[in-house]
Structure formats: structure tokens, C-alpha cells
Amino acid sequence: MSAPAPAVAKDPLRYFRIEARELVDQLSQGVLDLTRDDRAGDDREPVARLLRHAHTLKGAARVVRQGEIADAAHQLEELLVPHRDGAGPVPPETIGTLLTLTDRMSELATALETPQPPATAEIQAEKQPEREAPPVRSDSADIDELLDAVGEAHARFAPLRRQVATVDRARRAAEAIIEQLRIRGAQQDGVDGRTGAMATRLAADLTALGRQLTETVEQVERELDDIRGRAERLRLVPVATVLTTLHRAAYDAAGTEGKKVVFDSRGGDLRLDPHVLSLASGALLHVVRNAVSHGVEAEAERLAAGKPGAGHVTVEVHRRGTNAAFRCRDDGRGFDLGAVREQAQARGLVTPGAEADVRELMRLLMHGGISTAGEVTGISGRGIGLDAVRDVAEQLGGEVNVSTDPGLGTTVELVVPLSLVSLSGLVVEAAGTLASLPLDAVRTCVLLGAVEVAAAGAAGALAHEGQVIPFLPLSKVLTAPQATAGGAVAVILAAGERTVAVGVDRLLGTSALVVRPLPELAPASAVVNGLSIDAEGNPRVVLDPHGLAASAAGRIAATAAQKNADEDTADEQDPILVVDDSLTTRMLERSILESAGYRVELAASAEEALERVKLRRYALFLVDIDMPGIDGFTFVALTREDPVLRGTPAILVSSRASAEDRRRGAEAGASAYMVKSEFNQEELLGHIRDLVGEP
């Protein structure tokens, strides 16, 4: 009996179709990257990368006898070779030819995937100006069948689990028989020893069988869960597959309009349901074209307005809770709301003389037929764009948000619900609880000392690279019973325009996650994206950077409001002046003192403190010793020499612990001396109460 024919023999193009599509996409994106104004002047590395892709595609195409694709790849090589050794930037006309070749290769690769209708004699002479969004490629039907099979296999294991329970009951029965035989044997000498031995062996065999069955079932179920997770991930499509099309649309529109436009994108690693991604990309295609056509100004107009000559169009895709947000921003002229109002009045949508607010005008724009373009072109001007986005939002049960700032640009955001999404996650631990953070939002991780943790947790902010970032202890968010002050590591996350530092105890590594929505009866949380299932089958929360940033900002606002309320109701009391060049120490001491009820002001140097004491009276000075410029010893000595300030007590706080330093502090006139390594807030507050009384 002959062996079955291998899959390659049955379909020699099976693997070529996959490889060709990937290589053509890489070639298209690589050529578009050559158009960026912000790239380095040396094109040798990107050209070398394009040549490698083209050479690979040419070789593979020749192996499976796809001559047209091989010839196109060879032509692309010929155009790029002169620029391989740094002969200057690839000129625009060459880039145009390269893109024509990648378009042709894309058409040929697509033809291999989809049966073509019979050719006709009529050939379309003129290329259409608009580029349609290609269908998002996904073998979702095959993967759905695989998922169904996994679910059926899981169901078939349920009876086997019941058999494990039956074996366990038999084992317990055998053990009971052994015990009965033992008791009878103690009472009667005539009990057959062989019966007892057989029962003992039976119990041992049943124990081994039960253990083996349990381990086998659990192992197979873990593997089935792993297959389910991998299949669900395969079912989802990377956002990057549509970003190249949007980049090309911006490039083509800019060329047609004679404008300079830089296209940026973020979120390409996110994987979404192909149906959602296909609809959203089609809507974004209209938005990107309109942004270039009548959002971004001509170069001369931009320069006259003080803007860079090249406009910017940015497409971002990110997960927001159980939704996906698709955002397109441009830095153009914004909507001409006056023109929108005039068109709406002319069409009878707004009563002449009536004032329509911005929200109402945006609503009218989204219903189509109104355009702010000066003329109808092949790209825009027909009043189609926002209404296409609205239609997609309605199909998917989402919403559209539009904001415009005259002279500065427009943002269009499509937010749609998701059932599944795949992303890479950073697994962290806080107070014994595991959670995942989207890896694409992680900017850096910073180790924190005990003092920094306490200061950040108390102040709700963390100093990092010259910026003060809102700080949120993850243990507080997860409401863990053994919640700690903050965590030994701060994970710095980007959330749109905001940044937040999340305090965790440990970093446990990265993982590919398939994120599912929370169960319907689970309590909603703005900081939770959804749930993923780990290798052991346990659910793990996936956190939302936007929700974490909002929560951190809310904590700071609540703290500030409480502080203002406390200050309004408290009796006027002279504040304590904390003088220290360390932001961390200043914030920590401020937190301790304010928590005890004292009013506090801060100075980052002794020089600043000497200026402050000229303006008002203070109850006490809390001073660091080692500071640039005037040190703490000198500051205290200077205040003791001043007839107005000498009555204000001073406490020195330093990392120095020698008897000589303590003596110098006393000689300078300090009322108390505290060592940072031995720092005890109760001792500090005790000294302050002794010197200035209760708050």
C-alpha cells in the first residue's frame, strides 16, 4: 500500500502563499519607510533589508515556478542595488516605481489565494485613485473548527474524570476491607493471611491506577487548554497587517495633493478579531485620506503658520478595558466649523440664525453629505468619511468620538467592543497576587528603596528622570488583604498622553496573553482590561494602563482636596519648613508631618530656605546637612545669629552618625539631631511635639 501523498505534493503553493504574503508585506512597509523625513540620512541598512526580502521572494517564486512574481522581485532588486552602498537617499521617483512593483506582487500573491474569474478582453486603462482596504487575512473558519474539536475533547474527558472518582471509591473500599481483616485477625487466629495480602495489593494497585489516571487527565487537559490558547491567538490578526495599507493610503494621498506628510502608527503588535479589524481598517482608510486631503495644509501654508512643512498623521490602536480604540490624529487646520454650519443651514439641517454648538456640528458631519473640502477630488470632498466610521461603529456596537482644534488638528476615535484580544504581557506580583500589564505600554522599570517606596506611596507621585509621575501601588488596586505600602519596583507605563508609575513587588517575566472579557456577574473595574488563563488554568487579571493612570490621578486629586479641606478648617498655625535637596526625603517628611496634622512648606536648598524665612514665620526648621552650597550646619548657625530667627527651633536630619557630627550640630544651635539610617517617625514627631507642641 503506497503512502499518502505529502501535503506539498497535493498543493505545491501551500507554503509559498504564506511566505509570499509575508515578504510582500515586508517589502511594502520597507519601501514606505524610505519616505519618512525623520529617518536617518543613511539608507544603506533599510535598502539591504529590502534586498534580502526581495532575493528570498525571487528564489522562492522560481522554485514554485511563479515567474511573474520572481521577475517583479528581480526588478525591485535592480532598482535598489545602486543605493546599497550609500549612494544617497532613494529618490522619490524610484520609490514610486518600487511601490508599483510591490503592488503588482501583492496582486499576484492575492491571486494565488483566491480563484480569479475568467479574463475578459476589456482592460481598465486608468487606475482608480482610491485604494480599498484589503480583506484581513485569517483562517478563522479552520481555527473555529479546531476550537470546537478542543471543546468536544474536553467534554469527552468528563466521564473519565468520573471514572477517577470511581477508582478512588474502590481504593477506599479495599482499604476498609484491609482494616476489617486486620481487626478480625487480631480477634481470630484463623484468618487466611493470603486474603489480607490480596486486599493490600488491590488497594495499592487501585491507588497507583487512580494516581496515574488523575495525572494523565490533568496533563491532557492542560495540553488541550494550551492548544485552545494557541488557537485563539492564531484566530486573531496583528493590527500591523492593516497599518501598511493605511500608510500607503497617506502616501498616495499626499502625492496626489502635492503635500508632505509623515505617517506614524502605534499598536501594531496588538492582535484583534479579523472581522473587527477589517471593518475598522476600512473606516480608517477614509479618515486617513481626509486627514491628508483637507486636514493637513499645503507646505507654504504650514510654514506661514509657524508649523513644520510636513504634516503628521498618526494612527494608534490600543486596548481600553473590554474595547479596542482606533484613533487617527492629524496636526492640520482642523474642521472649518463655520463652513460646516453654512452647509448645514443651506441643506436645512440647522435653522438659519440658530446657533449650533460644536457637538451638534460634529453629529451632522457624521451623518454624511457635508464636506469641508474646498473641491471634490478623487480622494475627498464628497462628504464621505465620518459617516463611514459611524456606520462601522453601529455595526460593531461601538461609538465615535471626534474633537477638533482650529489651526492645530483633528482627532477621530472609533471605540468598539471586543470578545477576544491577544497581546504580550508583563507578569507582575503585588501582595501575593499575580497580574499582567500590556507590554507595549511599559516604558521602563525602576528599582525603589524603602524610603522611596514610602515617599511615593504617601505622596502619590514618583520622581523619575526629572519628572514627577503619578504613583499607584498595585496592592491597593487589587485590594489584597496583605497590601503593602507600594512595592519594590515601579513599572512606568504610557497611557496615551499620560504616564503612570505602578508599584509592584516583583517582575515575573513576559507572556503571550489571550485576553477575555470579565464574566457578566463580575464587578466592573476601570483598571481591569479582562482576564487571561495561565498555564495551570487559573484566571489572571490583565490591567488597563488608561484605567491605572486615571486611578492614580484620582488619588492625587482626592488627597489634594482633602488637604485643602483640612487647611481650610484648621486653625492658622505657623508651618514647619523642610529643607532638603532630595525630593524623596522632602516628600517623605512632608507626608509624615501632614499626616500628624502639621502644616508644611518645602525648600530644596538652604539658599531657598533663607529667602523663605524673610517672607514669613515658621514654627520649626527640619534641615538636611549635606546639601550643595550652604550646608545644614551653616544654615542653622546663620538662623541662630539672626535675632528674629534664633527663637525658631531646628532639627538636623542626616546620614552622618558620628559623635563629631552630633557635636557640630549642637554647637550650631540644633535642638535635635536624627540619623536617617535610624529614622523613626514617632521619634521625629516626639521631638517636634516637645519643641512646638501639638498641631
UniProtKB/TrEMBL annotation:
<dbReference type="Pfam" id="PF01627">
    <property type="entry name" value="Hpt"/>
</dbReference>
<dbReference type="InterPro" id="IPR003594">
    <property type="entry name" value="HATPase_dom"/>
</dbReference>
<dbReference type="GO" id="GO:0004673">
    <property type="term" value="F:protein histidine kinase activity"/>
</dbReference>
<dbReference type="InterPro" id="IPR036890">
    <property type="entry name" value="HATPase_C_sf"/>
</dbReference>
<feature type="coiled-coil region">
    <location>
        <begin position="203"/>
        <end position="237"/>
    </location>
</feature>
<protein>
    <recommendedName>
        <fullName>histidine kinase</fullName>
        <ecNumber>2.7.13.3</ecNumber>
    </recommendedName>
</protein>
<feature type="domain" description="Response regulatory">
    <location>
        <begin position="575"/>
        <end position="691"/>
    </location>
</feature>
<dbReference type="Pfam" id="PF02518">
    <property type="entry name" value="HATPase_c"/>
</dbReference>
<feature type="region of interest" description="Disordered">
    <location>
        <begin position="111"/>
        <end position="138"/>
    </location>
</feature>
<dbReference type="InterPro" id="IPR011006">
    <property type="entry name" value="CheY-like_superfamily"/>
</dbReference>
<dbReference type="InterPro" id="IPR008207">
    <property type="entry name" value="Sig_transdc_His_kin_Hpt_dom"/>
</dbReference>
<keyword id="KW-0808">Transferase</keyword>
<feature type="domain" description="Histidine kinase">
    <location>
        <begin position="213"/>
        <end position="420"/>
    </location>
</feature>
<keyword id="KW-0175">Coiled coil</keyword>
<dbReference type="Pfam" id="PF00072">
    <property type="entry name" value="Response_reg"/>
</dbReference>
<dbReference type="InterPro" id="IPR001789">
    <property type="entry name" value="Sig_transdc_resp-reg_receiver"/>
</dbReference>
<dbReference type="InterPro" id="IPR005467">
    <property type="entry name" value="His_kinase_dom"/>
</dbReference>
<keyword id="KW-0597">Phosphoprotein</keyword>
<feature type="modified residue" description="Phosphohistidine">
    <location>
        <position position="55"/>
    </location>
</feature>
<keyword id="KW-0418">Kinase</keyword>
<dbReference type="InterPro" id="IPR002545">
    <property type="entry name" value="CheW-lke_dom"/>
</dbReference>
<dbReference type="InterPro" id="IPR051315">
    <property type="entry name" value="Bact_Chemotaxis_CheA"/>
</dbReference>
<feature type="domain" description="CheW-like">
    <location>
        <begin position="422"/>
        <end position="554"/>
    </location>
</feature>
<dbReference type="GO" id="GO:0006935">
    <property type="term" value="P:chemotaxis"/>
</dbReference>
<feature type="modified residue" description="4-aspartylphosphate">
    <location>
        <position position="624"/>
    </location>
</feature>
<feature type="domain" description="HPt">
    <location>
        <begin position="5"/>
        <end position="112"/>
    </location>
</feature>
<dbReference type="InterPro" id="IPR036061">
    <property type="entry name" value="CheW-like_dom_sf"/>
</dbReference>
<dbReference type="GO" id="GO:0000160">
    <property type="term" value="P:phosphorelay signal transduction system"/>
</dbReference>
<dbReference type="InterPro" id="IPR004358">
    <property type="entry name" value="Sig_transdc_His_kin-like_C"/>
</dbReference>
<dbReference type="Pfam" id="PF01584">
    <property type="entry name" value="CheW"/>
</dbReference>
<keyword id="KW-0902">Two-component regulatory system</keyword>
<dbReference type="InterPro" id="IPR036641">
    <property type="entry name" value="HPT_dom_sf"/>
</dbReference>
<feature type="compositionally biased region" description="Basic and acidic residues">
    <location>
        <begin position="124"/>
        <end position="134"/>
    </location>
</feature>
